[in-house]
Each structure stands twice: as C-alpha cells, then as structure tokens.
C-alpha cells in the first residue's frame, strides 16, 4: 500500500526566480511496505497551475519523487507569478491484481513559492542612435535613453556616462530622466561620430547596473568656404576659338570633403 509521508498534509518548497531548467526544487517521499519490484514507484504531476513549469522524476536509488524546474516557454518570474500549486500522484510500477483493494496510488499537494531575485536595470533598446547639429549650443539635448527595474517599483533607476568612453567630457546625461545633452561645443570636421556608453543603476543598490552603447552622429553645417586645391596659371593662344576649354579647376570643401571640378573656357 502506498502512502505519502507528509506530516503537515501539504508539501511546500521555494525556488529562486533565476533557477534554470533542471534545477532541483525538492523531494517528496512515499512509503510502500512491499519490497523489491513491488515497492518500485513513479511520480507524475496530474494537475495544477505549475504543470507547465515543473517536472517530477523518480530517484531510482531512494524511490523519492524529485521535483525540478522544467522547460517552460517563459522563465520563472516573481513579479508575474510568485507561487504555484501542483497535484502529485504516486503509484506502483507493478500492481498485483490480488491487492488492488489495498491501494496502489496516492495523491499529494505541493506548493512552490518563487523567491524574488534582485536584477539589474534593463534598457528598452539594445543601442541608441542620436543626431545633433555640429553648431548645437552647450546644454542642448541630443536624445534620451530609458531603462526599467525588472523588479518593479522596488528601486528607482539612476543614469550616468561611462567616462572611459567620453574622455573629453563632451556629453552628460540627466541622472533621473536619461536625457543626453552637450557639455561642450562640437566640430564635425574633427570627428563626425561619437560613441559613448550610458550606465543605468539601481538607486538603492549601485552594484546592480547595466550599460548600453549610444552612437551620436554630428550633422554638418556649411561653415567652411570651398578652396582651390592649388594655384592655377594658364595661357591662351591668340587664335583660340570661343568655347574652347582652357583649363579645369579642382576645389574642395572641408565640410564634407567634397572635391569639385570647374571648367573654364574663353
């Protein structure tokens, strides 16, 4: 005859939300006064809201039922669901028809609590692309980043710039709203792109932090006049016909490194 061993009438276990598939949650014990093959048993989850989250298997050495994290479509998440309940059935692998009336199976209820794990902030984007005119004034907002604490309202998020990626201190970020703005004037002719990294950290636990790359493109303004590539000198014959090409002038603009050609004729 099979009986679950549970002095409180219900099994209770706890598992951290960070537990991976295959992580052991706990063991449940059933007794059988038979011996040998007649005492072998197997466990199954027959109902409950945790059927898709957890698995159970029989320990061949002890005949205990071992509950583990299964392979769910979504991982455990304390904020979404802090607990589960499953109904476990145990029964003999071999049943002697002569003793069917004595009972070859039993049921037990198992409650599994999900423990909250402090997680670092998550940015809403994997990277950010921003654009700003090269003549933008100091203090002008370039764009903004945004992150959230996956643990809910437990902690506010604070932003900062990793200064190793902005040694010249050209940019800053508002610690509260993630707005990126200019600390110094820019010059596209010196550098057309700036790549920085913004950090988001929990206000109450700075060790919980994450980073995101920010790519800032400078938009050109026409602040440089074209210049000739060299000093030109040409000669013309007295019998040159009207419209005949005399020379080609080469010039460039440092705004966009554009090289132009101008045709001169008489």
From TrEMBL:
It holds the Pfam family Cadherin. Residues 1-18 form the signal peptide. GO terms for molecular function: beta-catenin binding; cadherin binding; calcium ion binding. Gene3D superfamilies: Cadherins. This is Cadherin domain-containing protein. InterPro entries: Cadherin, Cadherin-like_dom, Cadherin-like_sf, Cadherin_CS. Keywords: Calcium, Cell adhesion, Cell membrane, Glycoprotein, Membrane, Metal-binding, Repeat, Signal, Transmembrane, Transmembrane helix. It is a single-pass type I membrane protein. It is found in: Cell membrane. PROSITE patterns: CADHERIN_1, CADHERIN_2. SUPFAM superfamilies: Cadherin-like. It comes from Champsocephalus gunnari. GO terms for biological process: adherens junction organization; calcium-dependent cell-cell adhesion via plasma membrane cell adhesion molecules; cell migration; cell morphogenesis; cell-cell adhesion mediated by cadherin; cell-cell junction assembly; homophilic cell adhesion via plasma membrane adhesion molecules; synaptic membrane adhesion.
């Amino acid at each position: 005859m099979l009986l679950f061993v549970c002095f409180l009438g219900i099994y209770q276990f706890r598992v951290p939300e960070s537990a991976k598939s295959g992580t052991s949650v706990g063991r449940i014990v059933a007794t059988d006064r038979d011996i040998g093959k007649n005492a072998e048993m197997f466990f199954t989850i027959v109902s409950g809201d945790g059927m898709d989250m957890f698995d159970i298997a029989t320990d061949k050495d002890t005949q205990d039922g071992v509950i583990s994290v299964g392979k769910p479509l979504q991982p455990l998440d304390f904020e979404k669901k802090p607990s589960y309940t499953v109904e476990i059935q145990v029964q003999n692998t071999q049943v002697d028809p002569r003793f069917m009336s004595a009972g070859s199976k039993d049921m037990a209820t198992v409650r599994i609590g999900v423990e909250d794990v402090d997680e670092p902030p998550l940015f809403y984007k994997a990277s950010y692309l921003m654009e700003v005119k090269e003549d933008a004034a100091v203090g002008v907002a370039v764009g903004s980043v945004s992150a959230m604490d996956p643990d809910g309202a437990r902690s506010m998020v604070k932003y900062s710039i990793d200064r190793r990626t902005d040694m010249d201190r050209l940019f800053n970020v508002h610690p509260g709203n993630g707005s990126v703005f200019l600390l110094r004037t820019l010059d596209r002719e010196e550098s057309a792109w700036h790549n920085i990294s913004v950090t988001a950290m929990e206000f109450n636990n700075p060790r919980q932090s994450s980073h995101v790359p920010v790519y800032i493109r400078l938009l050109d303004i026409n602040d440089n006049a074209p210049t000739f590539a060299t000093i030109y000198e040409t000669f013309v014959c007295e019998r040159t016909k009207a419209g005949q090409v005399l020379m080609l002038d080469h010039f460039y603009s440092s705004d966009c490194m554009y090289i132009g050609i101008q045709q001169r004729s008489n």
